Amino acid sequence: MENEEAQSRAIVSHAPGMVFQYILGGNDLYALPFLSDQCVNVLGVTVEALQANPALFEEIILWKDRKSLRDSRAQSAANLSTWNWEGRLWIESYHDVKWVSLRASPRREEGVGVVWEGIIINITQSRQRETALKESHERLKEVSSHIMAAREHERIRIAREIHDDLGGNLTAIKIDLDWLGRNIGNSSGSISADNGALLAKIRTVSQMVDRTMDSIKRISRDLRPGIMDFGIAAAIEWEAGEFSKRLGIPCEVAGTQQDIELGQDMAISVFRIFQEALTNIAKHGRASHVWVRLDVGSSEGQLQLEVRDNGCGITPADTSKLNSFGIRGMIERAGLLDGKLTVSGMPGRGTSVHLSIPLRIAREESVAVQPGIKS
């Protein structure tokens, strides 16, 4: 018997934390009849001090975490389920905060109350690693968001330069070509053979200028559609119409009739996600019809965008391919807005892209609006 007790004490003393027994009696009075020698290392107080004053256990817990301790204890006592709790302690001797994890199994004893036996472990290092990793992810998210915003602003600048500078120069060239065409000829108004060749060349160059100006308008619209100045709802409807005109595939838009107030960067991100969804349909979908819904979930305060088609469908393996950059880009954009994007479908039954973004992010966004490009 003595050997068994010695063995039990050895196991407890070598446990990776503080082993304890906790008794909750009537009127929420509790006692700590057993505490292992690790008590001072884990809690920063001696066994004798804590057993003499059990209330000291809650006093060293940060006040923000005391309610969660009591709630988890009450739930465990009511259901006789495992008591699981993680929280922070203020260790006076170190003048520092420590994270601990408590795990204990309950049982009910007649005339005593609820009795727990368990262990409290120091998890400060793992929590610090989690915090550092979370902060690193947040910084990466901020950098990615900044890079994406900077890229969109650069697109706007390039579109403006193309539209204003190149477009203006080509317009001047067009005017000069028209003047030359009207003024070539002799004084009697007849056209010589040489002048006829020049007129033909002028018409050819003029047509090239027209085509180049059309290309400039298209490139400017792709870089930053002027319709964005009228809000995301108008931009979605316009892009759906352009898709239908290019491919001859009906693209129906439904949802809110009022514009949704979004900051510039968020509106552009939603628009780019929509563009990529339509691009995927054009490249891979083999669809004959597309349905789009843009709406606001009033109960949840969420911006909802759904793009659905009746094409060849998609499988989970398709979305996880290494070269699925379009889908990954959409998911990344959604994540930078604290949103969620899902792509679902079945072979032969079409594909659905669903975007959900909390509108509180839209309200908090305060990026200065850049002037748009008119084409």
Short description:
With 375 residues, the protein is α+β, with helices and mostly antiparallel strands. 52% of the residues lie in helices and 22% in strands. The protein folds into three domains: 2-122, PAS domain (Beta-Lactamase); 125-224; 226-375, Heat Shock Protein 90 (2-Layer Sandwich), CATH 3.30.565.10.
Give structural notes.
The chain is α+β, with helices and mostly antiparallel strands and 375 residues long. The protein has 3 domains: 2-122, 2-Layer Sandwich (Beta-Lactamase), CATH 3.30.450; 125-224; 226-375, Histidine kinase-like ATPase, C-terminal domain (Heat Shock Protein 90), CATH 3.30.565.10. The strands form 2 sheets. Strands 2-1-5-4-3 form a 5-stranded antiparallel sheet, with helices on both faces. It starts with a helix and ends in an 11-residue tail after the last helix. It is built from 12 helices and 10 strands. Mean pLDDT is 83; it is low at 366-375. The chain has helices spanning 2-13, 39-43, 47-52, 56-59, 63-79, 124-183, 193-223, 232-247, 264-285, 316-319, 325-336, 359-364; strands at residues 18-24, 30-35, 83-91, 96-109, 113-122, 251-255, 290-297, 302-309, 340-345, 351-358. The chain is elongated and about 120 Å long.
